[in-house]
Design a protein that fits this description.
Layout lengths: L1 E4 L2 E4 L2 H13 L4 E11 L19 E10 L4 H20 L3 E12 L6
Parallel strand pairs: 4-5
Antiparallel strand pairs: 1-2, 3-4
Helix pairs in contact: 1-2
């Protein structure tokens, strides 16, 4: 991902975004990491573009993650918390604008607590 700066540009590897996503998912209570499925740049109405090179001034990053939710969690609330955490973490650490965080819940995690 490339971000223009005053005296040049900043390029952030997709691996960095992946790592931030993984940490945010692991640190969100009730969520298990499945896989990240899509990262795309959103700009000037072209939402089907999968380009990572340019960030338009009026567009930002769209992220999509696939997760499993712990059984018994309130799915809409847990996904909202995850969306906010991902958005805040990516924007704070990279300076990139995050327009969308789409969460796909593809399973439930049944935890067996042995005490």
């Amino acid at each position: 991902m490339r971000k223009p700066l005053h005296q040049g540009s900043l390029t952030i590897s997709e691996n960095v975004i992946d790592f931030i996503l993984e940490v945010a998912i692991k640190e969100t209570e009730g969520v298990c990491f499945v896989k990240k499925t899509l990262r795309k740049m959103v700009g000037k109405g072209k939402r089907s573009s999968y380009q990572y090179e340019n960030i338009h001034e009026d567009g930002g990053l769209a992220l999509k993650v696939e997760v499993a939710i712990d059984f018994g969690e309130i799915i809409p609330y847990t996904c909202f918390v995850l969306q906010e955490r991902i958005k805040n973490d990516v924007e704070k650490m990279t300076g990139l604008q995050v327009d969308e965080v789409n969460v796909v819940v593809s399973g439930l995690n049944l935890q067996v607590n042995e005490e």
